[in-house]
Design brief:
Pfam families: CoA_transf_3. By secondary structure, the protein is of the alpha/beta class. It is 36% helix and 14% strand. Strand 9 and strand 10 form a beta hairpin. The two termini are 41 Å apart.
Length: 414
């Protein structure tokens, strides 16, 4: 069943009662704050008047009721549900003063400006902590707040290259390949969320004080090299491109079939006998070279040739059916349309939707975090630019005269 937007009062997430001030934009910060919103936090997204988050302009594709005026960028929709949007011009002192007012009562602040920018605006952690000692302040940047490259620009494809991922992604002998999703941004966004939750827990268990968190895209990529890095540390040989193959497990890769591909994951020796039975290759099972995973890794080229020939004679449906019957982990390679038509994905609520006031029905992947008592839900549609400016300001004590003054000073749009 497709998840639907629900009354904000009907479900209470585990972070209900917490307020997040979101000064971030594009992907890494909004992905982090969306997760906090999915968990029940009140997220106030601060955007530039008239322009908003850059991803609002990243079209096509876009959701729309049929006219350009009400369209919403699909990219923007992907990481901005469960938030309220206010327009504030942070280049004006009046706009920055509003942020300070909001920050006094916030539990969390997330920003991903270039290093030092919030300090220039007197919106750094040191500028806000005296009036809100419990504030958890998360700064996300390309390279972090110290080191020789702290001031350099950073984008996902650069981080995938500099962080090593493009050195071992792609086919052997082929050009470097970027992983299709912005892995550096999403990874750093996940680390930021994890760090924020840890800091909130420490605040509750400790003396009530918050702290500053520094997360960088490059650090995240270095951490995510994981076993590729330790393989290098153990062998002295940097891993190279292997296509879908695994450096430590054989067979664990995609094989071309008569009409497409099948992925086989023989992740332990117990799967080797049923794999050989499934493809009717008792000769491979009897071959001592392939009896253990270590032997299969050492004799990878010989085994790959045999398996490639066998799978090439089968259709993908036939290969998957045979492997499934023998309980060997396997799958066809599906595109996104097939993923979100999967009954398992549907059963888990991983296809969600919300009604947007101008763009109509917007659909997006749901939250993978499932709780027994405190559900994650789609409580709010991805907001239109500045949709909640006045309502949020009034909640923080701003009256009609104050709002008119902010407009006259250019802090919020007309």
């Amino acid at each position: 069943m497709v998840g639907e937007a629900r009354d904000p009062e009907s479900d209470v997430g585990p972070l209900d009662g917490l307020t997040v001030l979101d000064l971030s934009r594009v992907l890494v910060g909004p992905f982090c704050t969306m997760q906090l919103g999915d968990l029940g936090a009140e997220v106030i997204k601060v955007e530039r008047p008239g322009q908003g988050d850059q991803t609002r302009t990243w079209v096509p594709p876009a959701f729309s009721k049929g006219d350009d005026e009400g369209k919403e960028s699909a990219y923007y929709v992907s990481v901005n549900r469960n938030k309220r949007s206010i327009q504030l011009d942070l280049t004006t002192e009046a706009g920055r003063a509003v942020v300070r007012d909001l920050a006094r009562e916030a539990d969390v602040l997330v920003e991903n400006f270039r290093v030092g920018k919030t300090e220039e605006w007197d919106l750094g952690y040191g500028d806000l902590v005296d009036e809100n000692p419990g504030l958890v302040y998360c700064a996300i940047s390309g390279y972090g707040e110290w080191g020789p490259d702290r001031d350099r620009p950073a984008y996902d494809i650069m981080m995938q290259a500099r962080g090593g991922f493009m050195s071992f992604t792609g086919v052997e002998g082929g050009p470097p390949v970027r992983i299709g999703v912005a892995l550096a941004d999403v990874g750093a966004g996940m680390y930021a969320t994890q760090a924020i939750l840890a800091a909130l827990l420490e605040r509750e268990l400790g003396d009530g004080r918050g702290q500053k968190i520094d997360v960088s895209l490059l650090d995240g990529q270095a951490a995510w090299t994981s076993y590729m890095a330790t393989n290098y540390f153990a062998s002295g040989e940097p891993p190279g491109r292997m296509g879908s193959k695994h450096p430590n497990i054989v067979p664990y890769r995609a094989f071309e079939t008569a009409d497409d591909y099948v992925v086989v994951a023989c992740s332990s020796d117990r799967f080797w006998p049923p794999l050989c039975e499934a493809i009717d290759r008792p000769d491979l099972l009897a071959d001592e070279r392939f009896e253990t995973n270590e032997g299969r890794v050492r004799n990878r080229e010989e085994l790959d040739r045999e398996l490639e020939e066998t799978f090439a004679a089968l259709s993908t449906d036939e290969a998957v059916e045979r492997l499934d019957e023998h309980d060997v982990p396997a799958s066809r390679v599906r595109d996104v349309s097939e993923v979100f038509a999967d009954p398992q994905i549907e059963a888990r609520g991983m296809l969600a939707e919300a009604e947007h006031p101008t763009a109509g029905t917007v659909r997006f992947p749901g939250s993978p975090m499932h709780f027994s008592r405190t559900p994650t839900t789609v409580r709010r549609h991805p907001p239109a630019l500045g949709e909640h400016t006045e309502s949020v300001l009034r909640e923080y004590g701003y009256g009609d005269r104050d709002i008119d003054e902010l407009r006259s000073r250019g802090a919020i749009s007309e």
